[in-house]
């Protein structure tokens, strides 16, 4: 596998930092319906909401790994474009969310730097909407993007099917909420952070849960941290060649009334020697279809989850993404059916559009 990835060309992730206890789940085994792998996967989705998806030995998985390596080169090329060129594709003028964006920082010498990301939506890539303007170098790699989207979605569909089974939902329940050819907030994200000193402020502001369903994240360097459940302890996630990190987002918590976990995480400078390098990560976010209302599903083991008297924010996936993605819903949404606002500033002034009873994790 090491020849399939470029990790060997980078300084190693240090051994002297505590790393996150992510289990490894084999995609090949899940594809083959292996019961042990499926159980371990479901446990990881409930307990941590993060795991490694080992792509080795899966034809689909190895394609995804090879394509991620190619896209990693494309993103390095994209971020090298002059700032004024990248700004053409920036938010909010191009789009409030599916666009280029940067936050300002300082390098070790106090020089201004950009921490950048660029969201490319699935519906643009697959020609399912009027395409947002993008640079010609993105268009030159159209086929690669298309293959990547189809392949990541095939892996996501496999995971959703296993979840569907464990949740004892009617066959195809989750699949029907995530049809690839319907409009949704699925997107590919390029990210880049230059070497920079630790900043408490940036670390705190960066804490988040993902908004959607399942995220497939390729890391080449450390820097991703997760907060261990029920603690204030942050631990680094060690990058493993050929095994992207998969995590669950808010939608899965809402659909399952808190059975599944969307864990808080953040990105900080890579530890050790790796901290001297530009850090890129490549993210594929899957989301429910735009028109799906984010609320608990009926059926299977979800029906046994308690219902709280507290009102729940209830809106479509599209509304949720746009509000969360543009800072209108501060705070994180984790496993207990509610927001955590601590440390995230003031609550939004206007209440959310609709309310419904909230489900609280047992
Ligand atoms: O860069 C990373 O490792 C994680 C990025 C992330 O959490 C996100 O973009 O939501
Ligand atoms: Fe994230």
Automatic annotation (TrEMBL):
Record Pfam families: 2OG-FeII_Oxy, DIOX_N
Keyword Metal-binding: yes
Domain Fe2OG dioxygenase: 184-288
KW ATP-binding (keyword) present: no
Gene Ontology molecular-function annotations: metal ion binding; oxidoreductase activity
Gene3D superfamilies, alphabetized: B-lactam Antibiotic, Isopenicillin N Synthase, Chain
Domain of life assignment: Eukaryota
InterPro entries, sorted: DIOX_N, IPNS-like_FE2OG_OXY, IPNS-like_sf, Iron_ascorbate_oxido_reductase, Oxoglu/Fe-dep_dioxygenase_dom
Keywords: Iron, Metal-binding, Oxidoreductase
SUPFAM superfamilies (UniProt xref): Clavaminate synthase-like (SSF51197)
PANTHER family listed in its UniProt record: 2-OXOGLUTARATE (2OG) AND FE(II)-DEPENDENT OXYGENASE SUPERFAMILY PROTEIN-RELATED (PTHR47990)
Family: Belongs to the iron/ascorbate-dependent oxidoreductase family.
Protein name, as recorded: Fe2OG dioxygenase domain-containing protein
Protein source organism: Kwoniella newhampshirensis
Biological classification of the source: Eukaryota, Fungi, Dikarya, Basidiomycota, Agaricomycotina
């Amino acid at each position: 596998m090491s020849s399939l990835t470029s990790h060997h060309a980078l300084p190693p992730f240090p051994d002297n930092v505590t790393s996150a206890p992510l289990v490894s789940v084999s995609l090949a085994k899940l594809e083959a319906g292996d019961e042990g792998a499926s159980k371990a996967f479901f446990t990881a989705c409930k307990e941590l909401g993060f795991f490694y998806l080992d792509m080795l030995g899966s034809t689909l998985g190895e394609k995804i790994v090879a394509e991620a390596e190619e896209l990693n080169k494309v993103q390095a090329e994209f971020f090298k474009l002059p700032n004024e060129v990248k700004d053409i594709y920036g938010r909010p003028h191009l789009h409030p969310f599916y666009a280029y964006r940067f936050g300002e920082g300082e390098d070790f010498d106090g020089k201004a730097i950009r921490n950048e990301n660029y969201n490319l939506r699935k519906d643009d890539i697959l020609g399912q909407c009027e395409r947002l303007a993008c640079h010609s170098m993105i268009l030159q790699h159209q086929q690669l993007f298309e293959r990547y989207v189809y392949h990541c979605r095939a892996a996501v569909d496999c995971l959703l099917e296993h979840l569907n089974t464990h949740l004892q939902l009617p066959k195809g329940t989750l699949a029907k909420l995530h049809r690839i050819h319907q409009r949704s907030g699925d997107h590919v994200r390029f990210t880049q952070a230059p070497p920079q000193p630790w900043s408490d402020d940036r670390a705190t502001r960066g804490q988040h849960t993902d908004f959607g369903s399942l995220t497939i994240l390729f890391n080449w360097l450390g820097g991703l941290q997760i907060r261990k459940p029920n603690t204030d302890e942050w631990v680094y996630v060690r990058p493993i060649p050929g095994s992207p990190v998969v995590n669950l987002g808010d939608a899965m918590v809402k659909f399952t009334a808190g059975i599944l976990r969307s864990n808080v995480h953040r990105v900080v400078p890579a530890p050790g020697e790796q901290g001297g390098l530009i850090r890129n990560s490549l993210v594929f976010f899957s989301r429910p279809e735009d028109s799906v209302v984010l609320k608990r599903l009926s059926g299977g083991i979800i029906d046994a989850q308690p219902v709280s008297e507290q009102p729940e924010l209830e809106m479509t996936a599209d509304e949720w993404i746009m509000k969360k993605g543009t800072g209108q819903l501060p705070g994180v949404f984790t496993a207990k059916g509610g927001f955590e606002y601590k440390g995230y500033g003031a609550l939004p002034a206007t209440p959310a559009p609709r309310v419904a009873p909230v489900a609280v994790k047992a």
